[in-house]
Amino acid sequence: MNIFKFINKGNYYISVNKKFKFYLLRLYRKKRKELFMNCTHNTIYRFLTINSYFINIKSYINLCKQLGFNEKKYFSEIIKYKTKMSFPVNIKQLKINKPFLRVLGHILGDGGIHINEKEKKYRVFYVNNQEVLLNSFEKDIYEIFGKLKIYKRNRLLHGDEIWLPNSVGLILYSILNYKDNNNDKRIPKFIFKIKDKKLLGVFIQSIFDDDGFLYPTKNMIVISQKRIKLLSEIRKVISLIGIKPNKILIHNSKNRTVMRYFTITSKLNIKKFNKYIGFNHPEKKQKLKILIKKYGGMLLCAVL
Fold first, then answer.
1. 251 with 222: CB under 8 angstroms?
2. Quick one: which of 119, 106, 237, 85 has its CA closest to 172?
3. What whole-number distance in Å separates Cα of residue 294 and Cα of residue 216?
4. How would you class 160 by CB atoms within 10 Å of its CB: exposed for 0-12, middle for 13-18, buried for 19 or more?
């Protein structure tokens, strides 16, 4: 997956590797008079001669196209990217893999994106009181984006926080399609096209690690959300795995926000949940073991 297909290219600036930059410079000097640029020639020369110089990605694409390079080539030569308001980030090819899907799931769960449209800031955060989940989120971010700067804050009452730089936030904001969803949490459309049940399970696991509950005495797994559209989409993904969740119900509380929830019951459904989804959350993982044991230890927990 090419991350630049998901983002507003006008917001990003990039640098490329030295060898390719030198090759571009030679071609540019030969063909300069033939080119129609969307930026000044001084900007092009600074980009091609100064190693630390970042150019807007639209100008870079325009230059490469006019010099005869195809999309695969000029995207593969990008090594770093940034926004105006952030430090550079080493780029890796974004893949639909386990770390990537876990991160998206956690953002839809106990995470989110703090948006300041006026200042063009998109700060991704994740909050939890489980060290295992916080460490997993941090490890996955490094796996996807390299060793970027992560900001942490310890809190006694509401769980510790992890914050990501704006350059990463803007990408995840685009991938999760916040703008078209009125800056609300929704599952991106490409998730529903994934055929691999284990990959879908990784995505759902991270959401259940944050928002799911288990009741071994009642033989049920539950997830609750205040967002009815998001909950409906979670239910749909679970159905794609082959699990038949129960209907969405409303839980009214005098002291809390109205919440929607659905349950997963029956031996077969819980068996499939255990096989394809499971938990990383230590307490929930233990409760799932208790529930599985009631059914005769039908399968080992999902290895994700």
1. no
2. 106
3. 8
4. middle
> Is the whole-model pTM more than 0.85?
no
Pick one of 1.10.10.10, 3.30.1490.100, 3.10.28.10, 3.40.50.720 as the CATH number of 190-294: 3.10.28.10
Which residues does residue 81 pair with via DSSP β-bridges, in sequence order?
14, 89
- The superfamily in CATH containing domain 98-182 is Homing endonucleases (3.10.28.10)
Query: Phi and psi at residue 72, in whole multiples of 5°?
Result: -60, -40
Report how far residue 278's alpha carbon sits from residue 104's, in angstroms, rounded to the nearest whole number: 17
Three-state SS letters, 67-95: CCCCHHHHHHCEEEEECCCCCCEECCCCC
Reported as a single tens digit per residue, the pLDDT across 196-229 is: 999 999 999 999 999 999 999 999 999 999 999 9
